[in-house]
Amino acid sequence: MSAPEYAARLLYVLAWLIGRLPLRTQQGLGTLLARLAYRRNTREAKVARRNLELVPAAAGGREPEQAVRAILAQTGRNALETLRIWTRPRRDNLALVRTVHGEAHLQAALAAGRGVIVAAPHYGNWELLIEFMAAHGPFSLVYRVPESRVGDAFLRLARGGENVRLVPAEASAMRPLYKALQAGEAVGITPDQQPKLGNGEFAPFFGLPALTLSLIPKLAARSGAAVLFGYAERRTDGLFDLHFEPADPAVAAPDLARATAALNAGVEAIVRRDPSQYQWTYKRYTLRPPGSGEANPYPRSCR
Questions:
Q1: Those residues with Cβ within 8 angstroms of residue 167's Cβ, 6 or more apart along the chain or in another chain
Q2: For a 10 Å CB count at each end of the chain, is N or C smaller?
Q3: pTM (2 decimals)?
């Protein structure tokens, strides 16, 4: 066993211990961590605050500072819930799901035999969505490889359950994903992860140009697979509702500007359901359109 793998296993043991706490305790700890983050004005708090300045709609009708606290609270709960999901049996995780909306769309897409692309934005708890998909068959998941070898080993250990196939978010990702779709399987891609320049198109997201991954439109156009938005929305009782919704057919348009605009519009509609459940602690707008003269809108304190 290599040193990174050994360190990753030690981290997993720590995650396992936290994951064994009762759900209410985990969510309470997540809320406590959020309060500490707000008081200490951590990087996450600063990024959320800056995103609210860039996208006032992210406040969801709340006062700005109230919205920052709400975003951090959801982020903290999500972090502790994720440790639970990563370290517990799948049947325990699926017990967190109260209802599934739109499952007929998923079943119809799979029955068509051309596979299905699940566009899973960073809303609610996306790790629970992974568990649900893997419980129903092979699921290829695109993920951004951490810079740390320990982090990558840990993530593979935590996410690498039965039926989960991890595909690094690299230029070579198209081939294994296309192969999975040809086999009639499901693949999962986060549509709101900012790619590198050259791997996406700038398209409006809450009115601002955002570099948007073009992998989903390219894959949908090439494979003919259906594209569904999937997300696990946190309820007021701490459990979750899963949703599957057909994407606008324009996401498969050969015009990538049109396709990515349709993709972002779909994500935006989901976020508006409860903006606090979206990952506004992520710097979505760092890269600006070439030739626009715009600078990175996030100050050094957010970096």
A1: 140, 141, 142, 143, 173, 176, 177, 187
A2: N
A3: 0.95
Structure tokens at 111: 């029955």
Tally of domains in the chain: 1
Q: Map tokens 């960073």 to a residue.
A: 122
* Residue 270: both structure tokens together: 């989901």
Q: What is the pLDDT along the chain (303 residues), one digit of tens a residue?
A: 788 787 889 989 899 999 999 999 999 999 999 999 999 999 999 999 999 999 999 999 999 999 999 999 999 999 999 999 999 999 999 999 999 999 999 999 999 999 999 999 999 999 999 999 999 999 999 988 888 888 888 888 888 888 999 988 876 788 999 999 999 999 999 999 999 888 899 999 999 999 999 999 999 999 999 999 999 999 999 999 999 999 999 999 999 999 999 999 999 999 999 999 999 999 999 999 998 999 999 998 887
- Rounded CA-CA distance 200/287 in Å is 11
Q: Are 220 and 251 in contact (CB under 8 A)?
A: yes
For residue 99, give the 3-state DSSP assignment: strand
In the structure encoding, which two tokens stand for residue 93, read together? 């995780």
| Angle formed at CA 245 by CA 244 and CA 249, multiple of 5 degrees | 140
How far is 1 from 6, CA to CA, in rounded Å?
6
Classify 93 as helix, strand or coil: helix
**Residue 45 CA, distance from chain mean position:** 19
Task: Judge whether 142 and 164 are in contact, CB under 8 Å.
Answer: no
Give the distance, in angstroms, between the CA of residue 79 and the centroid of all CA atoms in the same chain.
13
Name the DSSP class of 151: H
Q: The domain containing residue 244 runs over which residues?
A: 3-302
**172: which DSSP letter?**
G
Phi, psi of 119 (to 5 degrees): -85, 110
